[in-house]
Design brief:
single chain; 258 residues; alpha+beta; 7-stranded mixed sheet; 10 helices
C-alpha cells in the first residue's frame, strides 16, 4: 500500500511539475514579448501614437510578436500630420502605424551599420498588405553623424533622433523627426468630389462671448517620461515567475511526504 501511495505521489508530482513548467513558459513568453501600449504609458509625449495603436487594432496584432523595434513620432509631430491627412481611412492609418514597426531588434550601432546596404522589413510588409517593397524601409547615415530612415527608392528625410528605451533583445523604441508613410499610400488617388449642393441663405448667429480654442494653438512642451512605468511592468510580470516557482517547490515537498 505504501509503495502504491508513493508511486501515485510521484506520478502526481510529475503531472504537477509539467503543468507549472507550461504555465511558467507562458509567463516568460509574456515577459519577453513586451506589451508596447503598456510601456508607452510611461512616455506621455507619444500618447497619440499609443492611442492609435489600440483604436486601429495594431496593438492586438503586435501581441503575437516577441521581437521588434518601433519608430515613434511624438505628439507634436503626429497630431498635425493626422490633421493634414484626414482623408486617410482607419485601415490606411493602421498601415502607417505598421510601417513604423521594424521586424527586428536593432541597437543604435546596428542601425548605423545598415547605411543603405540592406532594406528593413516592417510589420506593414510582413502582413502582406504592401505592394512589392512598399512595406520596406531604408536607413542611411548623414554627413554629420545623423541617421535617416525612409521608403525604399527615395532619399530618407526622417531622422532617427534618439533611442528612447529598450528591453534586450525584444523591444526597442526610437524617437523620429517625422511620420513614415509608404509611397503607395502617398500616391493614393484623391477621393471623388461630391456634387455641389446649392447654398442656403446664411442665418445670422450671435457670436459667443469667448472664442473656443482652435487646433492652431501651439503644442505644449512634452512632459518628461515616467521611468517607473516600464520597470513596474517588468516587476509585475516577474513576480508571477517567483510565485509559480514557490508553488512548484511547495507542491513537490508536500507530495513527497504523502
Amino acid at each position: 500500500m505504501s509503495k502504491s501511495r508513493k508511486t501515485c505521489s510521484l506520478d502526481q508530482m510529475q503531472q504537477l511539475m509539467l503543468v507549472v513548467v507550461l504555465v511558467m513558459t507562458s509567463v516568460v513568453h509574456s515577459v519577453s514579448g513586451q506589451n508596447l501600449t503598456a510601456v508607452l504609458l510611461g512616455f506621455t509625449q507619444y500618447s497619440q501614437f499609443n492611442s492609435l495603436l489600440s483604436s486601429t487594432g495594431v496593438a492586438q496584432q503586435l501581441a503575437g510578436f516577441r521581437t521588434y523595434s518601433v519608430m515613434l513620432p511624438s505628439n507634436d509631430v503626429l497630431t498635425p500630420w493626422l490633421a493634414a491627412n484626414s482623408k486617410f481611412t482607419t485601415g490606411e492609418i493602421a498601415n502607417v502605424l505598421r510601417y513604423h514597426v521594424l521586424m527586428n531588434y536593432f541597437t543604435v550601432d546596428e542601425l548605423r551599420g545598415l547605411n543603405g546596404g540592406e532594406n528593413v522589413t516592417t510589420l506593414y510588409q510582413d502582413t502582406g498588405n504592401a505592394y512589392g517593397q512598399d512595406g520596406m524601409l531604408t536607413i542611411t547615415d548623414g554627413t554629420g553623424g545623423e541617421v535617416f530612415i525612409g521608403p525604399v527608392g527615395v532619399t530618407p528625410t526622417v531622422q532617427i533622433l534618439t533611442n528612447i528605451t529598450q528591453f534586450p533583445y525584444n523591444l526597442t523604441m526610437f524617437k523620429i523627426s517625422g511620420v513614415l508613410v509608404p509611397l503607395g499610400l502617398v500616391a493614393l488617388p484623391p477621393a471623388p468630389t461630391p456634387a455641389p449642393v446649392p447654398a442656403k441663405a446664411p442665418v445670422p448667429v450671435k457670436a459667443p462671448a469667448n472664442a473656443a480654442p482652435t487646433l492652431s494653438t501651439p503644442a505644449t512642451k512634452a512632459t518628461a517620461p515616467s521611468p517607473n512605468a516600464a520597470t513596474a511592468l517588468l516587476v509585475h510580470q516577474y513576480s508571477y515567475i517567483l510565485l509559480l516557482s514557490s508553488l512548484m517547490l511547495f507542491s513537490a515537498s508536500f507530495l513527497l511526504n504523502l
